[in-house]
Amino acid sequence: MSDAIQPFPAATAASPLTMKRLYGKLVWRLMPFLMLAFIINAIDRLNLSFAKLRMAEDIALSDAAYGIGAGIFYLGYILFEVPSNLYMQRVGARATLTRIMILWGLITVATAFVTTPSQLIVARFLLGVAEAGFFPGLILYLTYWFPAAMRGRITASFFMAAMVAGMICGPLSGAIMSHLHGWMGLRDWQVLFVLTGLPAVVLGIIGRYWLTDRPEQATWLDDDEKQQIQQVLAQETVATQAHQGLRGALRDPLLYVAGLVCFCIYSAANTVSYWLPTLVRGFGMEDLKQIGLVTALPFLGGLCAMYLLGRSSDRHMERRWHLGLTMLVAASCFFLLDLVQGQLVASVLVTTLGAAAALSAMPLFWTVPPALLSRSGAAGGIAIISSIGNLAGVLSQSAVGAVKTATGSLYLALDLIALLLVIGSLLLLIGIPARRLAAARPAEGT
């Protein structure tokens, strides 16, 4: 079999051009809204990393307490992630995703009014509870509409929204905190939380009218289009029916291997998200607008890498080596940071490359779980993998904060994150056989 595959199994009599137009229609209907939602979601996580630069003095926030606050978010997320994803199957994606967006927006706004580290920790925990199930819910939602052969590009495009958020969040946060201090009597960091939280509420309300749970319910598709989508997905379901339901998925050790790989990747990506402004300020920069501009660079690099890696991964239908080598590049750069310490240009370049690689590993990884899981076991299985990965948010960020407080430097913490990336790449390449991922490929000419 050739590595290049047809984008759609021949389960429908429709011509390739007709199917291309149909899936183009799906992309333009669904992806702009989902990508905008993910941009706002990412900004509402990244904003804490910029708010920390000023709120630390106002509420006596230490690096260790900040690490706990950054990490406790994931504890709330993990506790409610699997129930949220399973509940989504009962009530539908529209009701679940819009509820999540409205709640997280309101809690982000409320975070503007914390006055102690303990209150911040509580607010972050509640934010995790509110957001629980959003990401795995979106990944699951994409499987209702798009075949496996498209998901590398679709997932990469989806994650590109997070990179756009990173590019926007730095300059936006710097501008808000530099120019809107005192607006409505609020401190600069308080204004940041208010202005980044309200858009999620608005988008959640719009989503109630825009999203459709499944293709067969879409009034904007005709009957032939609905049937063509269902035929493609039905053939794919038969091809990937290696495990029956969630119970079958739970008995598969590869589910937990994938979860550990996810843990390693998320340890790196979360460290980039929550500590990048602090790291850049350690290069000798103090101006908030300048810090915001420099922190946008890794996300710009990640955006380009996601696009190129997503296309290459889909073209060759190869996931493991694309992902494993990307993780090793990130690890190498994190190790190198200690060696270029004190050299501004070299530090920025190495940080940009390492952070971009760490961030671009995420969409590559999320093409793997749908290939390992049957459609009936996908909802719970994806949520379990995501939950294991999100443990990194609890453990790694608390560890980074503790190391930063104890040593006054992020470099040792970054060395530990680099080691995790090396371990994760080995787990992926040794622990997940290529044949299991190849089994999910639709056969050519069938």
TrEMBL record:
GO terms for molecular function: transmembrane transporter activity. Keywords: Aromatic hydrocarbons catabolism, Membrane, Transmembrane, Transmembrane helix, Transport. Residues 30-436 form the Major facilitator superfamily (MFS) profile domain. InterPro entries: MFS, MFS_dom, MFS_trans_sf. The keyword Transmembrane helix applies. One of its GO terms (cellular component) is plasma membrane. It is a multi-pass membrane protein. It is found in: Membrane. The chain crosses the membrane at residues 26-44, 64-84, 96-115, 121-146, 158-177, 189-211, 254-276, 288-309, 321-340, 346-366, 378-398, 410-432. It comes from the Bacteria. This is Putative major facilitator superfamily transporter. It comes from Metapseudomonas resinovorans NBRC 106553.
